[in-house]
Amino acid sequence: MSERPTYDAFSATAGIQHTLRILEGRWKLVILFHLFGGKVLRFSELERAIPGISQKMLSQQLRQLERDGVVARTVYPEVPPRVEYRLTDWGQALCPALDALLLWAEAAPPDIRATLLSEEVSAAD
């Protein structure tokens, strides 16, 4: 393992911003949470698990996560083709980071915490 780089305020900010772009998108975090824990799901299973997402949007979000190295897609040579999705090791490593963010939100002052953890906020996005 190589030595960790030294960051200043600007390089750390740029690194975090680039990293957060991978997670941008209304459905990406929902997809990730469905795949955490080593789950392997077919496209149709993900579609059923995420009410309100269109096939086009699910396909688009999965393609972006695959391009960014977070999700792995396996196509089986069957008729009809079976396609399964799972997190890569790097994608699975996001779980503790996202859990830490949730713990951070839970520790917010009560008036802010109510807004951060409100289901209405996430549903309105």
Describe the structure.
- This protein has 125 residues and is mainly α.
- It has a single domain, classed as Arc Repressor Mutant, subunit A (Orthogonal Bundle).
- It is 58% helix and 11% strand.
- It is built from 8 helices and 3 strands.
- Strands 1-3-2 form a 3-stranded antiparallel beta sheet.
- The chain is globular.
- The termini are far apart.
- Mean pLDDT is 90; it is low at 121-125.
Number of strands: 3
* CATH hierarchy class name: Mainly Alpha
If you average the pLDDT, what whole number results? 90
Name the helix and strand elements from N-terminus to C-terminus, one letter apiece.
Answer: HHEHHEEHHHH
| Uncertain residue segments | 121-125
Summarize the structure.
The chain is built from 8 helices and 3 strands. With 125 residues, the chain is mainly α.
